[in-house]
Design brief:
This protein is α+β, with helices and mostly antiparallel strands. It has 2 domains: 5-158, Tubulin/FtsZ, C-terminal domain (60s Ribosomal Protein L30, Chain: A, 2-Layer Sandwich), CATH 3.30.1330.20; 170-201, 2-Layer Sandwich (Wheat Germ Agglutinin (Isolectin 2), domain 1), CATH 3.30.60. It has 8 helices and 10 strands. Strands 1, 2, 3, 4, 5 and 6 form a 6-stranded mixed β-sheet that branches. Strand 9 and strand 10 (191-193) form a beta hairpin. Bound molecules: zinc ion (2 copies).
């Protein structure tokens, strides 16, 4: 059964760790992209998300909302960051080789900059320390606006991608004794080595 928006929001905040408008922004954009593409929340790897956020920038929380909405998760490996520093996602229907790109309209950020939530964040207050009465109106705004007011979704386009083959075979590293997925194992002299053991051996500094 599909989760309601409210259930996704609750799950999202539990997963995310603090209450901010960025995670709900990802939820809304993810849901809009899924609707246009005609896909459900991914159970396996049938949907792939390419999120354009990078590291340590405002609204990066967007990526957690995308994970919660789309079911594309880092554990399953069907989400990747492009590190473009943009608040956008390309959602790919792997089976049908189709995709859409959804991004947040520029005007939305101009509006968000003025919000008391962003003023707190800009003055260095961690998101978890922003009082609820300040964060809640921003969260409500993101959750209640119509898609057309802040989300731009492209038409569906062709996207050719080969689904990766899941690797099950493991081997034992002869150096540390830990198991490693075979394709990540390396040869060190005549032994099998995991990558960290290989790197340790070849450290020049
Ligand atoms: Zn956040
Ligand atoms: Zn090892």
């Amino acid at each position: 059964m599909e989760m309601t928006k409210k259930e996704l929001l609750d799950l999202g905040f539990k997963f995310h760790g603090h209450r901010c408008p960025g995670m709900p922004l990802g939820l809304r954009v993810g849901l809009a992209a899924m609707e246009k593409l005609g896909v459900s929340r991914a159970k396996d790897g049938e949907v792939l998300a390419l999120i354009e956020t990078g590291e340590a920038h405002c609204a990066g929380c967007f990526g957690d909302g995308i994970q919660v909405a789309t079911g594309c998760t880092y554990g399953k490996g069907n989400i990747k960051k492009t590190h473009y520093g943009k608040i956008a996602v390309t959602l790919i229907d792997v089976k049908n080789q189709k995709a859409v790109r959804a991004n947040v309209a520029s005007e939305f950020f101009a509006k968000m900059e003025q919000s008391p939530f962003m003023q707190q964040r800009n003055s260095g207050v961690p998101a978890s320390k922003v009082p609820g009465e300040i964060s809640q109106p921003s969260i409500d705004m993101v959750m209640s606006m119509p898609d057309s007011a802040f989300i731009e979704v492209s038409d569906v386009f062709d996207y050719n991608i080969k689904p990766p083959v899941v690797q099950f075979k493991r081997v034992k590293c002869d150096v540390c004794g830990e198991m490693v997925i075979e394709k990540y194992a390396r040869i060190l002299d005549d032994k099998i080595a995991c990558i960290p053991c290989l790197e340790k051996e070849h450290k020049v500094f």
